[in-house]
Amino acid sequence: MTQKLVRHILDTIGELFPDAHCELRHSNPFELTIAVLLSAQCTDETVNKVTLDLFQKYKRPEDYLAVPLEELEQDIRRIGLFRNKASNIQKLCQLLLDKFDGEIPEKHEHLVELPGVGRKTANVVVSNAFGVPAIAVDTHVERVSKRLGLAGPDDSVLEVEKKLMKKVPRDEWTQTHHRLIFFGRYHCKAQNPQCQICPLLDNCREGKKRMKPSSTRKTITNK
């Protein structure tokens, strides 16, 4: 893929979603980390409903450790895998107090030490909380990148991230991450992508395949 085509894709998505941003509600790095941890295999919308009350009840790592695990589980029970996530939250909070003075560390290598925090979560935190350019590859970013040819169809999540980092200018990494998410969440959806009105249809092999059957049916009907 040429750099000119990459630029065209980035600019087109940018025009569609110029104000793309992190939709997880938070007011500090600690809340963001908890929210991203909760968002695994769960929608941001559901997470925001849960954290509306959660972040009123729990302000600091000490607060999460002051209640029985069962109580925290009930507080987040609407979230998928809530038992596992509740356990990770308490372990994360304990590690923050033991090793990082109760504060979310700014370095990526320290973030991934936290229970429940993988590479994607760490990328979201460093970019949104600390302003460090990063591309977090979630299901939307992975799907869109592969459909548009920014990554290979069989690439792993890490390979997708590396290819995007190579093709996208570093100062646009975080912005591109948000725009690819919005593009995948609201336009290039997993089940019903809006191929018929997509300005990038010519660059999407899957989109062209999806549109062919309807074109064929239309031709038959006209005959």
UniProtKB/TrEMBL annotation:
Recorded hits in Gene3D superfamilies, A to Z, give: Helix-hairpin-Helix base-excision DNA repair enzymes (C-terminal), Hypothetical protein, domain 2
* Record-listed E.C. numbers: 4.2.99.18
What positions does the domain HhH-GPD occupy?
38-186
Keywords noted in UniProt: 4Fe-4S, DNA damage, DNA repair, DNA-binding, Endonuclease, Glycosidase, Hydrolase, Iron, Iron-sulfur, Lyase, Metal-binding, Nuclease
The record's listing under SUPFAM superfamilies reads: DNA-glycosylase
Going by the entry's taxonomy, the superkingdom of the source organism is recorded as Bacteria
Could you give a GO molecular-function term held by this entry? Answer: endonuclease activity
Q: What class of enzyme is it?
A: lyase
The cross-references to Pfam families, in alphabetical order and at most eight, read:
EndIII_4Fe-2S, HHH, HhH-GPD
Which family does the entry's similarity section mention? Belongs to the Nth/MutY family.
- Function noted in UniProt: DNA repair enzyme that has both DNA N-glycosylase activity and AP-lyase activity. The DNA N-glycosylase activity releases various damaged pyrimidines from DNA by cleaving the N-glycosidic bond, leaving an AP (apurinic/apyrimidinic) site. The AP-lyase activity cleaves the phosphodiester bond 3' to the AP site by a beta-elimination, leaving a 3'-terminal unsaturated sugar and a product with a terminal 5'-phosphate.
Database matches in PANTHER family: A/G-SPECIFIC ADENINE GLYCOSYLASE/ENDONUCLEASE III, ENDONUCLEASE III
UniProt protein name: Endonuclease III
